[in-house]
Amino acid sequence: MSAGQSVASSTKRPTEAYLRVLHALMLRDMRTRFGGSHLGYAVVVLWPVVHVFVLVSIYVFRKVPAPLGESRALFFSTGAVTVLIFQYISKEVMKAVLMNKPLTYYPQVKNFDVVLARVLVEIITGFLGLLTVMSALVVLGVNPIPADPIVAIAGYCAAIALGIGIGTINIGIVAFFPGWLIGYQLFNILMYIASGVIFLPHYLPKQIYDILKYNPAMQIVEWVRLGYYPNSNMHVDYMYVMLFSLTTLSLGLLLERVVVRKRV
Questions:
Q1: Cα(159)–Cα(15) distance, integer angstroms
Q2: Cα–Cα dist 110/104, whole Å
Q3: pLDDT in tens, 191-220
């Protein structure tokens, strides 16, 4: 074996070992959280469909037109799925370290590995949920393809980034205050209401709209909707959303390194 092959082999082994650990963590995560059955996982994937169906049913029953466009289902799905992706990732990342604490006693497993495995599982789940919602829209006769796919996809990616950033911050908070597990659920309800899932924030008075724009979840909803309704009068502060996500991620990783490892 040549020297080059020896070096490549030595660097490949740690990478393969790490990927095996990550794969094992992802499988364990899915089996323990979803009861080890396909049905349990299917319920989580189908939840966005049920969520959108309930919203549409309420507006159809009340005979209220869609705030934007002609399809109620498309309008609500663009908002609800975006916020749910963000909220699910931020919530599950927060719970990852607490639920998998015994695994970190093994030298091969670090807190970061547990969090990364949980993030990957949630991204896959969110992607499957999005595909399920789009399939349901097709069945209803609604075209789910955005007018500007790049903008819409970037908005969904921003939702993932924001969820990861807030989730890592939550890890640090819950290490000090375990009650934040419940408190964050209540906080999410308020954020959901203020994110513009069921209304158009830019139709509000400018003073109120300017305040709501500090909510990054509202901005990612408008970001995704711009991909579907490019002619709407929505203005997204892309730099604010990305800097907010990167800042929370940096602070969360710093807390995990300096504080969480000593307390969890």
A1: 29
A2: 5
A3: 888 888 888 888 888 888 888 889 999 999
Amino acid type, 12: K
* CA–CA distance, 192 with 202 (Å, rounded to integer): 16
Euclidean distance between CA atoms 142 and 134, whole angstroms: 9
Q: What is the pTM of this model?
A: 0.84
Tens-digit pLDDT profile for residues 162-184: 999 999 898 888 878 888 888 89
Reading the block at residue 210, the tokens are: 């300017």
What tens digit of pLDDT does each residue of 49-87 get? 787 778 777 877 777 777 888 888 888 888 888 998 898
Identify the residue whose tokens are 């639920």: 99
- Structural domain including 22 reads 17-263
- The tokens describing 187, both together, are 């906080």
Give a yes or no: residue 77 inside a domain: yes
- In a domain, residue 225? The reply is yes
C-alpha distances (whole Å) from 78 to each of 4, 28, 141, 168, 228 are: 51, 31, 16, 25, 8
Residue 8 lies in a domain: no
Average pLDDT (18-28) is 80
So what's the pLDDT on residue 4?
46
For residue 82 the two structure tokens come to 């975006």
Stretch (H or E) spanning 126: helix 111-139
Domain count, the chain: 1
The answer to whether the CB of 239 falls within 8 A of the CB of 106 is no
C-alpha 210/C-alpha 162 separation (Å) is: 20
Torsion of the alpha carbons at 64, 220, 147 and 54, rounded to the nearest 10: -30
